[in-house]
Design a protein that fits this description.
Layout: E1 3-7, E2 10-14, E3 23-24, H1 30-36, E4 43-48, H2 53-68, E5 74-79, H3 84-89, E6 97-102, E7 105-111, H4 116-126, H5 130-147, H6 151-164, H7 169-181, H8 185-196, H9 203-220, H10 228-237, H11 242-254, H12 258-271, H13 275-291, H14 322-338
Parallel strand pairs: 3-5, 4-5
Antiparallel strand pairs: 1-2, 4-6, 6-7
Helix pairs in contact: 5-6, 6-7, 7-8, 7-9, 8-9, 9-11, 9-13, 10-11, 11-12, 12-13, 12-14, 13-14
Length: about 350
Protein backbone atom coordinates (compact mmCIF):
# COMPACT_ATOMS: atom_id res chain seq x y z
CA UNK A 1 0.00 0.00 0.00
CA UNK A 2 1.03 3.63 -0.44
CA UNK A 3 1.86 5.99 2.39
CA UNK A 4 1.91 9.79 2.60
CA UNK A 5 4.33 12.48 3.63
CA UNK A 6 3.65 16.10 4.50
CA UNK A 7 4.81 18.93 2.22
CA UNK A 8 3.76 22.58 2.57
CA UNK A 9 0.99 21.39 4.88
CA UNK A 10 -0.29 18.94 2.28
CA UNK A 11 0.01 15.15 2.12
CA UNK A 12 1.63 13.58 -0.92
CA UNK A 13 1.66 9.90 -1.81
CA UNK A 14 4.89 7.96 -1.51
CA UNK A 15 5.79 4.34 -2.08
CA UNK A 16 7.28 2.53 0.93
CA UNK A 17 10.77 1.23 0.26
CA UNK A 18 9.97 -2.36 1.16
CA UNK A 19 7.19 -2.44 -1.44
CA UNK A 20 9.08 -0.76 -4.29
CA UNK A 21 10.54 -3.11 -6.88
CA UNK A 22 11.11 -2.69 -10.56
CA UNK A 23 8.33 -4.23 -12.65
CA UNK A 24 9.36 -6.76 -15.27
CA UNK A 25 7.85 -5.70 -18.58
CA UNK A 26 7.17 -7.98 -21.54
CA UNK A 27 5.43 -7.42 -24.83
CA UNK A 28 2.21 -8.61 -23.19
CA UNK A 29 2.10 -5.96 -20.47
CA UNK A 30 4.15 -3.26 -22.21
CA UNK A 31 1.21 -1.09 -23.20
CA UNK A 32 -0.40 -1.13 -19.75
CA UNK A 33 2.78 -0.79 -17.67
CA UNK A 34 4.64 1.66 -19.92
CA UNK A 35 2.53 3.42 -22.56
CA UNK A 36 -0.67 3.97 -20.60
CA UNK A 37 1.13 4.37 -17.28
CA UNK A 38 3.29 7.16 -18.72
CA UNK A 39 0.14 9.20 -19.30
CA UNK A 40 -0.19 9.43 -15.52
CA UNK A 41 3.45 9.87 -14.51
CA UNK A 42 6.86 9.46 -16.16
CA UNK A 43 8.03 5.87 -16.59
CA UNK A 44 11.75 5.08 -16.59
CA UNK A 45 12.42 1.93 -18.64
CA UNK A 46 15.66 0.10 -17.81
CA UNK A 47 16.87 -2.20 -20.60
CA UNK A 48 19.19 -4.78 -19.02
CA UNK A 49 20.35 -8.41 -19.21
CA UNK A 50 21.37 -10.91 -16.51
CA UNK A 51 24.94 -11.22 -17.85
CA UNK A 52 25.53 -7.43 -17.92
CA UNK A 53 27.83 -6.26 -15.11
CA UNK A 54 27.07 -2.52 -15.41
CA UNK A 55 23.34 -3.36 -15.35
CA UNK A 56 23.78 -4.96 -11.94
CA UNK A 57 25.34 -1.81 -10.55
CA UNK A 58 22.77 0.55 -12.11
CA UNK A 59 19.69 -1.41 -11.04
CA UNK A 60 20.01 -0.79 -7.28
CA UNK A 61 20.67 2.91 -7.90
CA UNK A 62 17.45 3.20 -9.89
CA UNK A 63 15.47 1.33 -7.25
CA UNK A 64 16.87 3.59 -4.52
CA UNK A 65 15.97 6.71 -6.46
CA UNK A 66 12.43 5.48 -7.15
CA UNK A 67 11.91 5.35 -3.39
CA UNK A 68 13.69 8.64 -2.79
CA UNK A 69 11.59 10.42 -5.41
CA UNK A 70 8.45 9.22 -3.63
CA UNK A 71 6.30 8.24 -6.57
CA UNK A 72 7.33 11.03 -8.92
CA UNK A 73 8.23 8.41 -11.51
CA UNK A 74 7.63 4.72 -12.13
CA UNK A 75 10.49 2.29 -12.72
CA UNK A 76 10.23 -0.79 -14.96
CA UNK A 77 12.83 -3.14 -16.43
CA UNK A 78 12.97 -5.01 -19.72
CA UNK A 79 15.23 -8.01 -20.22
CA UNK A 80 16.69 -7.19 -23.64
CA UNK A 81 17.58 -10.83 -24.27
CA UNK A 82 14.08 -12.12 -23.64
CA UNK A 83 12.24 -9.15 -25.16
CA UNK A 84 14.16 -8.55 -28.36
CA UNK A 85 11.06 -7.19 -30.10
CA UNK A 86 10.86 -4.38 -27.57
CA UNK A 87 14.60 -3.75 -27.73
CA UNK A 88 14.45 -3.46 -31.50
CA UNK A 89 11.43 -1.15 -31.32
CA UNK A 90 13.46 1.24 -29.13
CA UNK A 91 16.64 0.84 -31.16
CA UNK A 92 18.64 -0.44 -28.17
CA UNK A 93 22.28 -0.95 -29.20
CA UNK A 94 23.96 -1.40 -25.83
CA UNK A 95 22.95 -2.02 -22.25
CA UNK A 96 22.21 -0.72 -19.79
CA UNK A 97 20.07 1.85 -21.58
CA UNK A 98 17.33 3.82 -19.81
CA UNK A 99 14.47 5.49 -21.66
CA UNK A 100 12.13 7.96 -19.95
CA UNK A 101 8.57 7.71 -21.26
CA UNK A 102 6.13 10.62 -20.90
CA UNK A 103 2.65 10.85 -22.37
CA UNK A 104 3.08 7.58 -24.23
CA UNK A 105 6.30 8.58 -26.00
CA UNK A 106 10.06 8.55 -25.33
CA UNK A 107 11.15 11.89 -23.86
CA UNK A 108 14.85 11.28 -23.20
CA UNK A 109 17.28 8.59 -22.16
CA UNK A 110 20.84 7.67 -21.25
CA UNK A 111 23.23 4.79 -21.79
CA UNK A 112 25.63 3.19 -19.36
CA UNK A 113 25.77 2.79 -15.59
CA UNK A 114 25.75 6.45 -14.59
CA UNK A 115 26.59 7.33 -10.97
CA UNK A 116 23.70 8.26 -8.71
CA UNK A 117 24.36 12.00 -8.95
CA UNK A 118 24.17 11.95 -12.75
CA UNK A 119 20.97 9.90 -12.71
CA UNK A 120 19.49 12.47 -10.34
CA UNK A 121 20.45 15.28 -12.71
CA UNK A 122 18.72 13.40 -15.51
CA UNK A 123 15.56 12.84 -13.47
CA UNK A 124 15.41 16.39 -12.12
CA UNK A 125 15.47 17.72 -15.67
CA UNK A 126 12.25 15.88 -16.54
CA UNK A 127 10.23 15.11 -13.43
CA UNK A 128 7.58 17.38 -11.93
CA UNK A 129 8.52 19.10 -8.71
CA UNK A 130 6.63 18.68 -5.46
CA UNK A 131 4.72 21.95 -6.01
CA UNK A 132 3.65 20.76 -9.45
CA UNK A 133 2.33 17.53 -7.95
CA UNK A 134 0.28 19.45 -5.40
CA UNK A 135 -1.16 21.67 -8.13
CA UNK A 136 -1.99 18.67 -10.28
CA UNK A 137 -3.73 17.06 -7.31
CA UNK A 138 -5.86 20.19 -6.93
CA UNK A 139 -6.74 20.21 -10.65
CA UNK A 140 -7.84 16.57 -10.49
CA UNK A 141 -9.93 17.32 -7.40
CA UNK A 142 -11.51 20.29 -9.19
CA UNK A 143 -12.48 18.10 -12.13
CA UNK A 144 -14.21 15.67 -9.78
CA UNK A 145 -16.03 18.48 -7.96
CA UNK A 146 -17.17 20.02 -11.23
CA UNK A 147 -18.50 16.64 -12.37
CA UNK A 148 -20.57 16.63 -9.17
CA UNK A 149 -21.91 20.08 -10.00
CA UNK A 150 -19.99 21.87 -7.24
CA UNK A 151 -18.58 24.80 -9.21
CA UNK A 152 -17.70 26.91 -6.15
CA UNK A 153 -15.56 24.18 -4.59
CA UNK A 154 -13.97 23.48 -7.97
CA UNK A 155 -13.01 27.15 -8.30
CA UNK A 156 -11.41 27.05 -4.85
CA UNK A 157 -9.33 24.02 -5.79
CA UNK A 158 -8.18 25.59 -9.06
CA UNK A 159 -7.30 28.80 -7.26
CA UNK A 160 -5.23 26.77 -4.79
CA UNK A 161 -3.48 25.04 -7.70
CA UNK A 162 -2.47 28.38 -9.20
CA UNK A 163 -1.33 29.72 -5.84
CA UNK A 164 0.99 26.73 -5.44
CA UNK A 165 2.20 26.73 -9.04
CA UNK A 166 1.36 29.85 -11.12
CA UNK A 167 3.04 28.23 -14.14
CA UNK A 168 0.43 25.46 -14.27
CA UNK A 169 -1.25 26.32 -17.58
CA UNK A 170 -3.78 23.50 -17.27
CA UNK A 171 -5.00 24.88 -13.94
CA UNK A 172 -5.11 28.44 -15.32
CA UNK A 173 -7.09 27.37 -18.37
CA UNK A 174 -9.67 25.44 -16.34
CA UNK A 175 -9.88 28.24 -13.75
CA UNK A 176 -10.50 30.99 -16.31
CA UNK A 177 -12.94 28.85 -18.28
CA UNK A 178 -14.96 28.07 -15.15
CA UNK A 179 -14.92 31.71 -14.03
CA UNK A 180 -16.34 32.71 -17.40
CA UNK A 181 -18.96 29.99 -17.24
CA UNK A 182 -20.25 31.25 -13.88
CA UNK A 183 -20.17 34.91 -14.95
CA UNK A 184 -17.11 36.09 -12.98
CA UNK A 185 -15.80 38.00 -15.98
CA UNK A 186 -13.55 40.50 -14.20
CA UNK A 187 -11.81 37.75 -12.23
CA UNK A 188 -11.52 35.70 -15.40
CA UNK A 189 -9.90 38.58 -17.28
CA UNK A 190 -7.38 39.12 -14.48
CA UNK A 191 -6.51 35.42 -14.30
CA UNK A 192 -6.22 35.18 -18.09
CA UNK A 193 -3.87 38.18 -18.46
CA UNK A 194 -0.60 36.30 -17.66
CA UNK A 195 -1.44 33.63 -20.23
CA UNK A 196 -2.19 36.23 -22.93
CA UNK A 197 1.30 37.68 -22.35
CA UNK A 198 2.97 34.37 -23.19
CA UNK A 199 5.02 34.12 -26.37
CA UNK A 200 3.91 32.19 -28.30
CA UNK A 201 0.29 32.61 -27.27
CA UNK A 202 -1.40 29.27 -26.71
CA UNK A 203 -4.48 28.73 -28.87
CA UNK A 204 -6.58 27.63 -25.91
CA UNK A 205 -5.96 30.92 -24.12
CA UNK A 206 -6.66 32.91 -27.26
CA UNK A 207 -9.94 30.99 -27.49
CA UNK A 208 -10.83 32.01 -23.94
CA UNK A 209 -10.01 35.62 -24.84
CA UNK A 210 -12.50 35.60 -27.73
CA UNK A 211 -15.16 33.89 -25.64
CA UNK A 212 -14.56 36.48 -22.92
CA UNK A 213 -15.09 39.25 -25.46
CA UNK A 214 -18.41 37.69 -26.45
CA UNK A 215 -19.51 37.44 -22.82
CA UNK A 216 -18.51 41.06 -22.14
CA UNK A 217 -20.44 42.12 -25.25
CA UNK A 218 -23.53 40.32 -23.93
CA UNK A 219 -23.23 42.22 -20.65
CA UNK A 220 -22.39 45.71 -21.90
CA UNK A 221 -23.55 46.33 -25.49
CA UNK A 222 -27.02 47.78 -26.01
CA UNK A 223 -27.63 45.28 -28.80
CA UNK A 224 -27.56 42.52 -26.21
CA UNK A 225 -31.21 43.42 -25.55
CA UNK A 226 -32.24 42.87 -29.17
CA UNK A 227 -34.23 39.92 -30.39
CA UNK A 228 -32.60 37.76 -33.05
CA UNK A 229 -35.24 38.97 -35.50
CA UNK A 230 -33.84 42.50 -35.22
CA UNK A 231 -30.40 41.29 -36.27
CA UNK A 232 -31.85 39.21 -39.08
CA UNK A 233 -33.87 42.16 -40.43
CA UNK A 234 -30.74 44.33 -40.73
CA UNK A 235 -28.74 41.49 -42.28
CA UNK A 236 -31.54 40.84 -44.80
CA UNK A 237 -31.27 44.46 -45.94
CA UNK A 238 -27.49 44.26 -46.27
CA UNK A 239 -25.78 40.88 -46.47
CA UNK A 240 -22.45 42.62 -45.94
CA UNK A 241 -23.45 44.23 -42.64
CA UNK A 242 -20.62 42.39 -40.95
CA UNK A 243 -20.75 44.41 -37.76
CA UNK A 244 -24.33 43.24 -37.16
CA UNK A 245 -23.42 39.68 -38.07
CA UNK A 246 -20.52 39.69 -35.62
CA UNK A 247 -22.71 41.18 -32.89
CA UNK A 248 -25.28 38.43 -33.45
CA UNK A 249 -22.54 35.77 -33.44
CA UNK A 250 -21.13 37.07 -30.16
CA UNK A 251 -24.52 36.90 -28.48
CA UNK A 252 -24.91 33.35 -29.76
CA UNK A 253 -21.45 32.51 -28.38
CA UNK A 254 -22.41 33.99 -25.01
CA UNK A 255 -25.50 31.79 -25.01
CA UNK A 256 -23.40 28.73 -25.98
CA UNK A 257 -25.31 28.45 -29.27
CA UNK A 258 -22.07 27.40 -30.89
CA UNK A 259 -23.22 26.02 -34.25
CA UNK A 260 -25.50 29.01 -34.95
CA UNK A 261 -22.64 31.34 -34.03
CA UNK A 262 -20.24 29.56 -36.38
CA UNK A 263 -22.79 29.58 -39.20
CA UNK A 264 -23.11 33.36 -38.89
CA UNK A 265 -19.35 33.83 -38.72
CA UNK A 266 -18.88 31.61 -41.78
CA UNK A 267 -21.12 33.99 -43.73
CA UNK A 268 -18.63 36.77 -42.99
CA UNK A 269 -15.63 34.64 -43.93
CA UNK A 270 -17.18 33.63 -47.25
CA UNK A 271 -17.82 37.29 -48.15
CA UNK A 272 -14.67 38.91 -46.75
CA UNK A 273 -11.97 36.73 -45.17
CA UNK A 274 -9.91 39.66 -43.86
CA UNK A 275 -12.67 41.90 -42.49
CA UNK A 276 -11.78 43.49 -39.14
CA UNK A 277 -8.42 41.72 -38.93
CA UNK A 278 -10.02 38.32 -39.63
CA UNK A 279 -12.33 38.61 -36.62
CA UNK A 280 -14.78 36.05 -37.98
CA UNK A 281 -12.14 33.40 -38.66
CA UNK A 282 -10.52 33.96 -35.27
CA UNK A 283 -13.82 33.54 -33.48
CA UNK A 284 -14.61 30.32 -35.37
CA UNK A 285 -11.19 28.93 -34.46
CA UNK A 286 -11.82 29.93 -30.86
CA UNK A 287 -15.17 28.12 -30.76
CA UNK A 288 -13.64 25.00 -32.30
CA UNK A 289 -10.89 25.05 -29.69
CA UNK A 290 -13.43 25.41 -26.88
CA UNK A 291 -15.53 22.57 -28.28
CA UNK A 292 -12.66 20.18 -28.95
CA UNK A 293 -13.06 17.28 -26.49
CA UNK A 294 -10.35 17.18 -23.87
CA UNK A 295 -7.69 14.60 -24.61
CA UNK A 296 -6.63 12.06 -22.01
CA UNK A 297 -3.28 12.90 -20.47
CA UNK A 298 -0.82 11.97 -23.13
CA UNK A 299 -1.50 10.68 -26.59
CA UNK A 300 -3.26 7.34 -26.69
CA UNK A 301 -1.72 4.64 -28.88
CA UNK A 302 -3.46 3.23 -31.91
CA UNK A 303 -5.80 0.45 -30.72
CA UNK A 304 -4.09 -2.90 -31.14
CA UNK A 305 -0.58 -1.45 -31.31
CA UNK A 306 1.94 -0.03 -28.91
CA UNK A 307 3.66 3.29 -29.58
CA UNK A 308 6.52 1.34 -31.11
CA UNK A 309 4.18 -0.35 -33.55
CA UNK A 310 4.21 -3.67 -31.70
CA UNK A 311 1.07 -5.68 -32.31
CA UNK A 312 -1.10 -6.04 -29.22
CA UNK A 313 -4.42 -7.83 -28.96
CA UNK A 314 -7.67 -7.31 -27.19
CA UNK A 315 -7.96 -3.53 -27.74
CA UNK A 316 -11.33 -2.20 -28.80
CA UNK A 317 -11.59 0.77 -31.14
CA UNK A 318 -12.79 3.99 -29.56
CA UNK A 319 -16.40 4.94 -30.18
CA UNK A 320 -17.13 7.98 -32.30
CA UNK A 321 -17.55 11.16 -30.27
CA UNK A 322 -20.44 13.35 -31.56
CA UNK A 323 -18.73 16.52 -30.31
CA UNK A 324 -15.48 15.57 -32.03
CA UNK A 325 -17.46 14.93 -35.22
CA UNK A 326 -19.07 18.37 -34.92
CA UNK A 327 -15.66 20.01 -34.54
CA UNK A 328 -14.35 18.09 -37.54
CA UNK A 329 -17.37 19.11 -39.63
CA UNK A 330 -16.92 22.82 -38.93
CA UNK A 331 -13.17 22.66 -39.46
CA UNK A 332 -13.92 21.43 -42.97
CA UNK A 333 -16.50 24.17 -43.47
CA UNK A 334 -14.00 26.82 -42.39
CA UNK A 335 -11.34 25.36 -44.64
CA UNK A 336 -13.68 25.46 -47.64
CA UNK A 337 -14.73 29.04 -46.84
CA UNK A 338 -11.09 30.15 -46.71
CA UNK A 339 -10.19 28.51 -50.03
Amino acid sequence: MRGKYALHGRFIDFIPADLTTMIDVTVENFEAEVILASNELPVLVDFWAPWCGPCKSLGPVLEKLEVEYAGRFKLVKINSDDEQQLSQAFGIRSIPTCVLMKDGKPADGFMGALPEGKVKEFLDKHLPGADELIAEEDVNAAEALLAEGNADAALEKLQEALAVNPANDDARYEYVKLLMAVGELDKAQAALAPALAQIPLQLRFEALHHWGQALQFAHTDERAQWQMAQFDALIEKNKRDFDTRLAKARLLMAAAEWTDAMDELLEIVMRDKTWSEEAARKNIVAILELLTPAKPKGEQPVPGKSAGGIELTGKAAALNDPQAELVSKYRRKLSMALN
